[in-house]
Amino acid sequence: MMKLLFTRTLAALLFCTVIIGQIKAQEYTASLKPEFNGVVPTVWDIQLPAQNNIKGYLGDRYAENLKNRLLQVDEAGLLDGYTHRPGKHRWIGEHVGKYLEAAVNTWKITKDPALKKQMDRIANTLVSTQLPDGYLGTYLPENYWTSWDVWSHKYNLVGLMAYYSVSGDRKFYTAAVKIGDLLCRTFGDKPGQKDIIKAGSHVGMAATSVLDPMVDLYRWTGDKKYLDFCRYIVSAYDHQGGPAIIKSLLKYQQVNKVANGKAYEMLSNLVGVIKLYRVTGQPELFEASKIAFDDIVAKRLFVSGTTSDHERFKDDFDLQADTAAHMGEGCVTTTWVQFNMQMLGATGEMKYFNEIEKSVYNHLLAAENPATGCVSYYTPLNGIKPYKCHITCCLSSVPRGISLIPYLNYGQLAKVPTVFLYESADIKDRVLVNNQPMELGLKVQSKFPQKGAATISVSVPKTSMFTIQLRVPVWATGFKATVQGKVYTGKPDELVKISRTWKAADQIAVSFDIPVNILPGGKSYPNDIAIKRGPQVLAFDQSLNKNTDISYSVSKNPALTSQGKLPSDWIGTQVYQLPVTTKTGGKTQLTLVPYSDASQTGGSSSVWIPATVKTK
């Protein structure tokens, strides 16, 4: 009892010292990268250019995520499980690492001084609670390595390595290494070591998901013991009582047949699996990951780009989308985006980016209220989004997903500068021209997603011959890009390569059509339809509509008009009118907004609308 009292008192003093003393914000000069890359060549570099000031629709939501969510976090709540062990609940330890990852990604872009000071405080307080042997969890000794303890260490590894990448302070690198060393000593097949399967919930998948940052730790350090530990985790999948993730996917070809079907933990493991593939080249790791992707997209993905029902993968095409279904857990959405980023990095195949785009423009942004920064744990397609601001796993995960946006609009694909999304942005990057690095500036000006047009101004220090690549969105039609009178065209889901001698002030004029499509309700909503415009799924927000009819008919080629009035406090500018016929034969219009904006004022919204499609 005295030992516990002393520990808590010491932790409280450390916390107070940090908060009251306000750790002097260190100057960040580093932009560090892992030391070791894998044997599978990287096709898409998952890294930020020197500058990527993204604006427009995604940029606005990115800024709201900083202002209303990251800068408003409950610092004491994030750290309390460490400064006052044991934590209030079993997974309280995951939040601080998640915060650090999101904050670092956001600071890299914004250089926001308030965020920097906040990161410094939180990161320094966290490492001050690490025990000499490397333990950095929220449990007491008698409960070490049970329940969600490894899980919390996983997210601390993620957060510490992220923070080290911008601060360059070896203290945080050392803290991560100490965690890795402790895990390697604790778990394994040697005498006296623990079985990691027995150390975590959901058939061990909570614990084995530490594979993800352990691969990163190996890449940072080049220390083979971390690679050996990653291989141990994969072998442990097949231990008695284990999830058998790889074998089950290869055998059954269905994610709902793996372990207990828990979506978040399984996807989190698969992020680590594909990272390990990129390091080792083991083909079964990629094959299992690809099977998971194919199965989810074909049978278990909602039109908004998320998955899970009551946090699990369900039967084929069982996609109940109301509040009672507890669909689309925010953690699942973010991890699905991360998984697709890794698959894209390994292959360069645009099918993975298409799913990223779908998730970001729809379910990811829908899970965070732009006006308040509160997050919906489960975000229904039909019903009221239950936004809350108290600490939950999703309140910590969704901002991580949003913080990834500047990685997505632009990047280098096979070393070629590539514009993926046509949001306004100011981009500066270094590209290779004749094997020599050169500064490249791209200024994208557009009103996307309202309009399918963009002007890309190219800035180079000298006239140079190289290629710029443009993604043709999978949903777009009539895509063309014009440079100095020369027209380049592309089909949906293609990459348009513009190889020419570029000079200062060259411009690329991009245009494409944004089609409106009717989506059938499928097995779960056979009498309903949804409306999709470009990448965005639209929703009927009850607060914006006076019409109370419950059934409509819609033209098979609906013509949306961009008109209508939004409340003065509404975040967002998109509003559309859909002509419909009521069940009594009357003509009226439904007001639709992007699903990602709907329900922000607290009203009910519906993606699935009771309607039939006119055949003529």
Furnish the topology, listing elements before pairings:
Layout: H1 2-21, E1 51-54, H2 56-69, H3 75-83, H4 94-110, H5 113-128, H6 149-167, H7 170-186, H8 205-208, H9 211-221, H10 224-236, H11 245-252, H12 263-280, H13 283-300, H14 330-347, H15 350-366, E2 375-376, E3 382-383, E4 387-388, H16 393-402, E5 410-413, E6 416-419, E7 425-433, E8 436-446, E9 453-459, E10 464-471, E11 477-483, E12 486-490, E13 495-502, E14 506-513, E15 516-520, E16 528-533, E17 536-541, E18 552-554, E19 576-582, E20 587-594, E21 605-606, E22 609-613
Parallel strand pairs: 6-10, 18-22
Antiparallel strand pairs: 1-7, 2-4, 3-21, 5-6, 7-8, 8-9, 9-14, 10-13, 11-12, 11-14, 15-16, 16-17, 16-22, 17-20, 17-21, 18-19, 19-20
Helix pairs in contact: 1-5, 3-5, 4-5, 4-6, 4-16, 6-7, 6-9, 9-10, 9-12, 11-13, 12-13, 12-14, 14-15, 14-16
Q: Can you describe this structure?
A:
With 616 residues, the protein is α+β, with helices and mostly antiparallel strands. It is globular. It has helices at 2-21, 56-69, 75-83, 94-110, 113-128, 149-167, 170-186, 205-208, 211-221, 224-236, 245-252, 263-280, 283-300, 330-347, 350-366, 393-402; strands at 51-54, 375-376, 382-383, 387-388, 410-413, 416-419, 425-433, 436-446, 453-459, 464-471, 477-483, 486-490, 495-502, 506-513, 516-520, 528-533, 536-541, 552-554, 576-582, 587-594, 605-606, 609-613. The strands form four sheets. The chain has a seven-stranded antiparallel beta sheet. A six-stranded mixed β-barrel has the order 16-17-20-19-18-22. It has three domains: 2-25 and 50-408, Glycosyltransferase (Alpha/alpha barrel); 413-448 and 452-513, Immunoglobulin-like; 516-613, no CATH class. Mean pLDDT is 94; it is low at 1-25. α6 packs antiparallel against α7 (170-186), α6 (149-167) runs parallel beside α9 (211-221) and α9 (211-221) runs antiparallel to α10. The protein contains 16 helices and 22 strands.
